[in-house]
Amino acid sequence: MLRNVLAVVAGIVAGGVVVFGVETMAHSVYPPPEGFDPTTPAGMAAIMGKAPVGALLLVLLAYAAGACVGGFVAAKLASSGSQSKAMIVGIVLLLAGISNLLAIPHPVWMAIGTLIVFLPAAWLGGRLAQM
């Protein structure tokens, strides 16, 4: 049981690190504008309204990559029920994505993409771990 809990925690951490890493790389492709303040909701809302589509697509890619890697790690480390552990990671990351949607206004298409991307990506990571 402890091994499965640690597998899920490791998957969540790995997924979060991947999301952060991909988003950081995306900032080098699409740097934020001068004077951007990411510490305030108003600053984040202002950037979201002006963000290029490519930048937002890279965020969705970060979510998918993070969920896939997180699901893979959890499934690889789990002692039993590896696919369910991958899906738990996907659910936790989805909840983090939803909290982001609630905190910062997003275009509708991106909100829909956020709601759709996590679970299939975590499922894929879990399946890849079983190969």
Tell me about this structure.
By secondary structure, the protein is mostly helical. The chain has one domain. It is 82% helix and 0% strand. The protein contains five helices and no strands. The protein has helices spanning 2-29, 41-50, 53-77, 82-103, 108-129. The chain is elongated and about 50 Å long. The two termini are 23 Å apart. The mean pLDDT is 93.
Descriptive tags:
about 130 residues, mainly alpha, 5 helices
Question: What is the compact description of this entry?
Answer:
With 131 residues, this protein is mostly helical. It has 5 helices and no strands. It has one domain.
Give the helices and strands, then pairings.
Blueprint: H1 2-29, H2 41-50, H3 53-77, H4 82-103, H5 108-129
Helix pairs in contact: 1-3, 1-4, 3-4, 3-5, 4-5
